[in-house]
């Protein structure tokens, strides 16, 4: 929101202005009420504002003297002047100082709102006009800054280039800030900022306008398209103030550009040669995007301390999940998944790498159970690679939860449909296979058990399931083998025996035919 300061020596006038219009609806926030110009200047020394509404006649420092002083300090603020007198000389002086409007008391609601709307449009227009200009500037400087934070430049070359580009590195400390556009929301900005590069330049422009008068910093957009700030002379006691300024930047970025961001702040370093450590740690925190909501601001030390204090790993019993799926209990399965993800939502406890491992585990548990329960579920399996890919691009864990629940509903719909078209003997056969998968089962022994001929049993199974008996059993065993390859350190020959293959060579051949890679290659491919 744009910030407004009200200045008048009459308390009732100040109170009236605060209640005269709905500031929030206009995207404005009254951050200060001052009784004279000197008090307003003192407030502006501690914070920034976009709009100043001031009385013209006040003790200590008049409204015109206040504006004149602010202009001398080159404060980028828009002014509205109020007066109880229709004095042409005052009007001329105020216009010469660059005010936006001169309003007579009592202030008209319509006139004040109209003036404020015009000021807001003017502020936003000025931001957009500078975007194209800044896009072509500082290419060399951006390159040097990126090489600096990446630790890819020698000290001598850096000092020479810094001097050439008038970059100040005479600082007692440095800390980096990375502003990353949330990928899934980036398309929302398309109507306002049609190109990615322009979007980053717009973010740079907003940050420079908001932060520039308060902090010393360098800002650039590197090849990875993240906006990076290097703040100088920061101290740990300044972190709350830095967070407040970043929050304000996030708010303006959201409103003006229609896009969400994720901000991470690296470690505080006392030597310019160690800035790359701060940058690396800020990049490390970007993995938390899958756990934290958009527009979060994370500080490295704070996040790591919380993780160290609360560190614990939780595992889950996949048997319970598989039992729920095998029992065709949709509600119980969904409850299990929701409970699983609710335990992951405390991102001060779980690190992103832990969460990825746990989610991969539950995805494979679900896939195994679905494959075990229903042979003809290949369309559902198409969703699994997408889920795993989403993990490694740090898609929100909340979105992954919704995708998994949707997949479960799809699977149960398939189960319910299939049950209507399967005979009792096929149902019994599937249940027997599920319960005796590790044993030496074949059509001949099963046909004898169910008092039918092997040929008829094979025909009936394929007719009602759409898959041959052999392919069905192999499919279940290969899924089980993949689970063991991921979760255990068993030798491949041991896994072959455990899942029901008496011939290891046949297992290798079947696995490669099904997965297009060998069991050993599959194990190595899993992170």
From TrEMBL:
**Organism domain of life:** Bacteria
* Pfam families in UniProt: HTH_18, Response_reg
Task: List localization entries.
Answer: Cytoplasm
- Major location (coarse): cytoplasm
Q: Does the keyword Transcription apply?
A: yes
What are the UniProt keywords, alphabetically?
Answer: Cytoplasm, DNA-binding, Phosphoprotein, Transcription, Transcription regulation, Two-component regulatory system
Q: Does the keyword Isomerase apply?
A: no
- In this UniProt entry, the residues modified to 4-aspartylphosphate are 55
Residues in HTH araC/xylS-type domain copies:
427-525
In terms of PROSITE patterns, this protein maps to: HTH_ARAC_FAMILY_1 (PS00041), HTH_ARAC_FAMILY_2 (PS01124), RESPONSE_REGULATORY (PS50110)
TM region(s), chain numbering = none
Domain Response regulatory per the UniProt entry, residue ranges: 3-120
| Cited InterPro entries | CheY-like_superfamily, Homeodomain-like_sf, HptR, HTH_AraC, HTH_AraC-typ_CS, Sig_transdc_resp-reg_receiver, Tscrpt_reg_AraC-type_HTH
Q: Which GO terms describe its molecular function?
A: DNA binding
Give the PANTHER family listed for this entry: HISTIDINE KINASE-RELATED, TRANSCRIPTIONAL REGULATORY PROTEIN HPTR
* The protein's name: DNA-binding response regulator
